[in-house]
Amino acid sequence: MTVFHSEIQLRETHETEIIDITSEIQREIARSGVKDGIVSIFVAGSTGAIISLEYEPGLIKDIPALLEQLAPKYPANNYFHEQTWHDGNGHSHVRASLLGPSMTVPIRQGQLIHGTWQQIAFMELDIKSRKRRLFITIIGE
């Protein structure tokens, strides 16, 4: 069994930006030499998320719009996090908690398993621009 670790560094991101990382994940699978197994993608940080979606312009707008309904940015003082830290990103933490920091996807015959219109993406949820690090763990044979 092989365990392969790597890291993908993203350029500086902005709030609600969604970045398709599918090809980068597939590239890491090829580098690992694993033919059958799983890949785990994890963002280090409590205001980023790993999601699966059809990466198309409509959904790139729909997902942030839905998150605004579920965990609105304003008024910021509605969040206990904001009352404690006064950093303006209570909604960012709530949104990230809803979406989650990681995803595990199967690998078969050296290929990431996903639907025809399904991609893996990173979503920035913080109010501050950040350079993000995604940690990739591939396990298999």
Can you walk through the features of this model?
It is a single chain. By secondary structure, this protein is α+β, with helices and mostly antiparallel strands. It is 29% helix and 38% strand. It has one domain: Jelly Rolls (Sandwich), CATH 2.60.120.460. A hairpin with a 2-residue loop joins strand 5 and strand 6. The chain is elongated. The N and C termini lie close together (5 Å).
Shape: elongated
Number of strands: 8
Which class of secondary structure composition applies to the elements? alpha+beta
Identify the strand order in the major beta sheet.
1-8-3-5-6
- Overall CATH class: Mainly Beta
CATH A-level architecture = Sandwich
CATH topology type: Jelly Rolls
Total domain units: 1
Instruction: Provide a count of the helices.
Output: 4
CATH superfamily: YjbQ-like
Are there runs of 5+ residues with pLDDT below 50, and where?
none
How much of the sequence lies in strands comes to 35-45%
Which helices and strands, and how do they pair?
Elements: E1 2-13, E2 18-20, H1 22-32, E3 37-43, E4 48-53, H2 57-70, H3 80-85, H4 90-99, E5 102-108, E6 111-112, E7 119-124, E8 130-140
Antiparallel strand pairs: 1-8, 2-7, 3-5, 3-8, 4-7, 5-6
